[in-house]
Amino acid sequence: MTDAVDDDEDFEELYGAWEATLHAAGMADDRYFALLIGGPRWDDPHTIILTRDAEAQTFSRLDVRRELRGVRVVPRADDASEPSYVTLSLNGDIYVISPKGAEHSIIPGTQAESDDAPEAWVHRVTGP
User: Fold this and answer.
1) Which residues contact 125 (CB under 8 A, 6 or more apart)?
2) Which of 6, 33, 74, 119 could pair with 84 as two cysteines, CB 3.0-4.6 Å apart?
3) Alpha-carbon gap, residue 26 to 32, rounded angstroms
4) How far is CA 80 from CA 61, 65, 75, 83, 84, in A?
5) Distances from the Cα of 111 to the Cαs of 67, 70, 87, 100, in angstroms?
6) Which pLDDT value is given to residue 86?
7) Alpha-carbon distance 82 to 96, whole Å?
């Protein structure tokens, strides 16, 4: 008979606790920044993307089921607009995070590409 794992304590005993780790940070200027926070668990490739406007004291959070390791600031068209950020997964996903939400696309020929998506595709995620 196999026992089901019902609560977090049993799960953590079997697989270890999810320990938040800062993978990367990108700062646009002294007001805006983005953080990639993930955990070292083999069974849960998960990264939290946090962006912040330090002056307005606002945060935005995007959770992705991929391991992301680097984040870069996308050059802005003007100084008045909020910055955007770009990050890549270890599997070939590209995430562009902007004030209007996030875009997800896949680099053709990588592990992230599926049989029904032979060309790069874009998935828009909207949010605050």
Assistant:
1) 62, 101, 102, 103, 104
2) 74
3) 9
4) 22, 32, 12, 9, 13
5) 13, 18, 16, 28
6) 94
7) 13
Q: What is the pLDDT of residue 71?
A: 93
Tell me how far the alpha carbon of residue 37 is from its chain's centroid: 8
pLDDT value of residue 9: 58
Q: What is this structure's pTM?
A: 0.69
* Amino acid, res. 56: A
Task: Supply the pLDDT for residue 87.
Answer: 93
Cα→Cα distances 104→18, 94, 122, 123, Å: 25, 6, 5, 5
Residues in the chain predicted with pLDDT less than 50, given as ranges, are 1-2, 5, 115-124, 126-128
For 48-71, b/e burial (b = at least 16 CB within 10 A) is: bbebbbeeeeeebebebebbbeeb
- Token pair recorded at residue 33: 């920044």
